[in-house]
Amino acid sequence: MKTRLLIVHPEPSTLALLSSMLMSMGHEIDEAANDRMAVRLMERGGVDLMIAGVDPSDIEALELLAYMRRKHRQIPVILMFPDSNPERTKEALRLGALAVLKFPVPATELRAAVTQALGPVVAAQAAAAAAAAAALPKPTTQSSSAPPSTHSPHQNHTPAPAPHLRAEQLAIDWGIVGNDPSLRQAIELAASMASMRSPVLIVGEPGTGKSLLAQTLHSMGSRGDKAFVNFDCTARSEAWSEHEAIDPNSGSANGQSDREWRSQLAQAQGGTLFLDEVSALPDDLRLQLLRSLQDREFESMNSNHNGQPDVRFLMSTSENLSGLVEQGKFRQDLYHRISVICLKLPPLRHRGTDIEQLAEYFRARFAQEFNKNVVGFTRDALDCLNKHDWPGNVRELEGVIQRGVVLCQGSRITSGHLSPGLGNPRVSRPSSMSSRPQLSSSIRPLKEALEEPEKRIIIQALQALNWNRQETARVLDINRTTLYKKMKKYGLLVDGPIWVN
Ligand SMILES: Nc1ncnc2c1ncn2[C@@H]1O[C@H](COP(=O)(O)OP(=O)(O)OP(=O)(O)O)[C@@H](O)[C@H]1O
After folding, report:
1. Entry's PROSITE patterns (predicted)?
2. Residue 365 Cα, ligand 1 centroid: separation in angstroms?
3. Is 39 exposed, middle or buried (0-12, 13-18, 19+ CB in 10 A)?
4. I need a surface site. Which of 20, 178, 209, 331 has the fewest CB within 10 A?
């Protein structure tokens, strides 16, 4: 799939230089010496990215950008200024420029900016190709408020409730592939609150795209050009439990958590602090979070800023937080504050045709990355993908397709290029895990073969101990974080499908 770039610059020699820098990436290039020519080429259609060199001191420097935002909102624009001009840069970013580079620009930097800008475009092309390949019924003019249909990969391509253009649009705008109604609902809700300051909790199984959605929510809003600080609560909790094991006297009393919290807030000043897997946040930091949220409420009630850092909190969880509250394992007061706005991401196995769209997207991405001429999938490979349960959700699919592209010697990925065991009958979910998984008799890598008995032992212990993790970790003689990670890996984290509306 070729992408077309439009380069705009008044200097013919610069135009030629930029074209030669980018042509080697395999893009088709159009050139325009001025705004008028650029507009004409835009109206002809087919352009995926505009790169324009402008003089920031020129009063009309941002006219072309403004035109692009008015008429071609989805097409990214990269500007190049010959001199640094922070004021104009800020204005250009506010108007919607994807990036402002200083010209002359090193070829590597320019190519990196172009690759980044075209990521969503490639995703959109892949989504469109996947939709076409799946030969879905023609989209109707159904409105997006129509009730969402329930999708199952077993259903034979139930017509999607909204036009596929919609999926394309999502991919173009935010690099999120998928047409599932619940996914779309979550993204639309995210878009509507992107510039608000209120905390948002993103809920979904591991690998469903919670971090991607958090990053998108941040980038879409008014804080998009400020810091996005990702705080991995599980890693923090693990580091902390190791520290405790070495020094049992250390803890919150020594003020370390206070310093750590302040440092995170300082880093995220003006932007977003994303607490990934918030239920793993250690108790002392939960208290810090609660205080920060309370201070925020106090501040807005009194409409004064009492020196609190200006940080928006986004959080994710793959656990049933209300269940943890009931079991006394998560503070109720904190839960009420963080769960006011809750975005729910559906598991991949409930997302019907999204499996094929995502597979096509990752195939295109990895084929480009590894420079391989892998153009699609055989029917048996698609059957395998559709039959699988995807406990690791989109992340698992991404890994499977990456492997498929690497192993594929021909032009299409076959079932043989996919992971062994994929397409076997679906494994049961945590709620119906009474039966033991069968051990395969085929010879496989040891690490992979050991996963099945490990999973079975963990399930047995959890069931025997009524899913009490602390007890289970004690009985299995592993620490709680290790148990948590293994549960996450095997798709055992969720007590019930809390993200299904
Ligand atoms: N709809 C999507 N379109 C394209 N890529 C996606 C989509 N959803 C997830 N991904 C990709 O799948 C991978 C896993 O996504 P992400 O890390 O956001 O999941 P997560 O729910 O935060 O996982 P975890 O709970 O394990 O932290 C990432 O590489 C992400 O870019």
Report:
1. RESPONSE_REGULATORY (PS50110), SIGMA54_INTERACT_2 (PS00676), SIGMA54_INTERACT_4 (PS50045)
2. 15
3. middle
4. 20
DSSP run (H or E) holding 121: helix 107-133
Q: Which of 456, 376, 389, 375 shows the shortest CA–CA distance to 419? A: 389
Q: CA angle, 432 as apex, 415 and 355 as ends, to 5°?
A: 30
Query: 357 in ligand 1 pocket by Cβ < 6 Å?
Result: no
Cα of 351 to ligand 1 centre, how many Å? 14
pTM for this model (two decimals): 0.57
What is the tens place of the pLDDT at every residue in 312-369?
999 999 998 888 888 888 999 999 888 878 889 999 999 988 999 999 999 998 998 8
Q: pLDDT tens-digit profile of 129-143?
A: 555 554 444 333 233
Nearest ligand 1 atom to alpha carbon 208: 21
Residues 6 or more apart in contact with residue 70 via CB below 8 angstroms: none
326 Cα–ligand 1 center, Å: 29
Domains of the chain: 4-105 (3.40.50.2300), 121-142+159-172+354-426 (1.10.8.60), 181-344 (3.40.50.300), 430-489 (1.10.10)
- Indicate if ligand 1 lies below 6 Å from the C-beta of 391: no
Ligand 1 within 6 A of 395 CB?
yes
Question: Ligand 1 pocket, 318 CB below 6 A?
Answer: yes
Indicate whether residue 206 lines ligand 1 (CB < 6 A). Answer: yes
Beta strands in 259-399 (DSSP E): 272-276, 312-317, 342-344, 376-377
**How many CB atoms within 10 Å of residue 48?**
24
Residue with structure tokens 């998928």? 178
Q: Which of 184, 351, 394 to mutate to test the pocket of ligand 1 (most atoms within 8 A of CB)?
A: 394
Share of the chain above pLDDT 70, in %: 75
Inter-residue contact 374 to 405 (CB < 8 Å):
yes
Classify residue 29 as exposed, middle or buried by CB count within 10 Å of its CB (0-12, 13-18, 19+).
middle
Instruction: Compute the C-alpha angle 358/363/366, nearest 5°.
Output: 120
317 lines ligand 1 (CB under 6 A): no
ipTM rounded to 2 decimals: 0.98
